[in-house]
Specification:
Oligomer: heterodimer
Radius of gyration of chain B: 19 Å
Strand order of the largest sheet of chain B: 1-2
Shape of chain B: globular
Number of helices of chain A: 2
Distance between the termini of chain B: 22 Å
Helix content of chain A: over 70%
Helix content of chain B: over 70%
Number of domains of chain B: 1
Largest sheet of chain A: none
Radius of gyration of chain A: 18 Å
Structural class of chain A: mainly alpha
């Protein structure tokens, strides 16, 4: 049981490190470029902005969920 | 990091950590976590309207992640979630209208504060009583629920009242095979409408009302109530995000950054539910409404909005 907990904890920490690196890259690459465009959209086309906002957050959720699930499977192998 | 939409400077690390903590709570308890996210954004100097709208957008993303994970664990009743979304949206609109009426009468802050304190404390007190009683009655059956059968046999000391509500046969009756319940559609709509009413009236997603009422009134097993509530939140919070975004209250960039932390927190929270029995999850839920009550009492006595 203790061995299993240690394995889970190690897998989680490895996942956290990989995830953090991906998130930092994401901040600089995506949000930096999106910022200006979204600001313009928010000030000039509110309804389009509202739709884009929902699509972006749902899209990010689906992608991040897939990334974290993939990382978990990759690290833990078949035990997940 | 500068966020041009809300014209604010906030550390992305702070946002990720706040998102992570709220993600764990959301994944485990099926709540939006607005009672923490709102004050956390306010602490960084964001206007109240942006805090509310941005928080809703972040809740949508976090709920997608947590609901997907719960669905993989078999904890989501899609039929029930869709039906509840209808009542929630209707209730939220009525709650918002009620707020407008109180604003015109000039006593909105006092009424909302008193109502929320009473509601939060009542929920916590009831859940402490019920989960303690259930845990004392069934000391051997509260181990790790490893199978779907164990989840469906979620014991509750309030079960006799729930069964009486389920016998309330006003047509149309709906069968919810995933939850193992047959119940009047009107009861489902009424429960979700009340949840929505509190959501519109007190702000946030009102998961602290909907999750317990799904368990105690509809008789949904706790694990399924958590997962289904999250699925339902995706729909109602998306609606809220859209209306707030149109009014200029959403900084989606802040929500996206917060969500990077929430995504992993929600997964951890959702996976953790596997290791706890229903009554233990309900007992652990108790501090959440009390935190909400403490925030309202602080606001009421100091005049500062957190």
């Amino acid at each position: 049981m203790k061995k299993q907990t240690a394995t889970t904890l190690r897998a989680f920490l490895v996942e956290l490190v990989i995830y953090a690196a991906l998130v930092v890259a994401y901040f600089f690459a995506v949000l930096h470029f999106l910022g200006g465009w979204l600001y313009q959209l928010e000030t000039q086309h509110r309804y389009t902005y509202a739709g884009v906002a929902i699509l972006l957050i749902i899209g990010q959720a689906v992608v991040l969920e897939s990334v974290t699930t993939f990382l978990l499977r990759m690290i833990r192998g078949r035990s997940e | 990091m500068f966020f041009p939409i809300s014209n604010s400077h906030i550390s992305p690390i702070y946002l990720v950590i706040v998102g992570f903590l709220i993600g764990i709570l959301g994944g485990f308890f099926g709540v939006g976590g607005s009672f923490i996210a709102g004050p956390a954004l306010r602490l960084m100097g964001i206007d109240w309207n942006f805090a509310v709208g941005t928080d809703l957008a972040h809740i949508v993303g976090k709920s997608v992640v947590a609901a997907k994970r719960h669905r993989a664990l078999g904890n989501v009743d899609l039929k029930l979630g869709l039906l509840m979304a209808v009542g929630t949206i209707g209730g939220a609109e009525c709650g918002a209208q009620l707020i407008q009426m109180l604003k015109r009468a000039g006593n909105v802050n006092l009424v909302v504060s008193v109502v929320s304190i009473v509601v939060y404390v009542s929920i916590s007190s009831f859940m402490v009583w019920e989960s303690h009683k259930t845990l004392r009655q069934k000391p051997r059956s509260t181990g790790t629920p490893s199978s779907a059968t164990a989840k469906k046999a979620d014991p509750s000391s309030f079960g006799h009242v729930t069964r009486r509500i389920q016998r309330f046969k006003i047509r149309p009756m709906i069968n919810l095979p995933v939850s193992g319940v047959t119940i009047s559609l009107w009861v489902v709509i009424l429960v979700s409408f009340i949840g929505g009413l509190f959501s519109g009236f007190l702000g946030g997603g009102a998961g602290y009302i909907r999750m317990p009422s799904m368990v105690y009134v509809l008789g949904i097993p706790t694990h399924l109530a958590v997962g289904t509530d999250l699925f339902e939140i995706i729909i109602s919070a998306s609606y809220g995000t859209f209306t707030h975004a149109v009014k200029g209250n959403v900084d989606i960039l802040i929500a996206l950054v917060m969500h990077t932390g929430a995504a992993i927190g929600a997964q951890i929270g959702a996976i953790s539910t596997q290791y706890f029995a229903g009554p233990k999850i309900r007992l652990a839920f108790v501090p959440l409404p009390l935190i909400g009550a403490a925030i309202v009492i602080y606001t009421l006595f100091t005049g500062h909005k957190l």
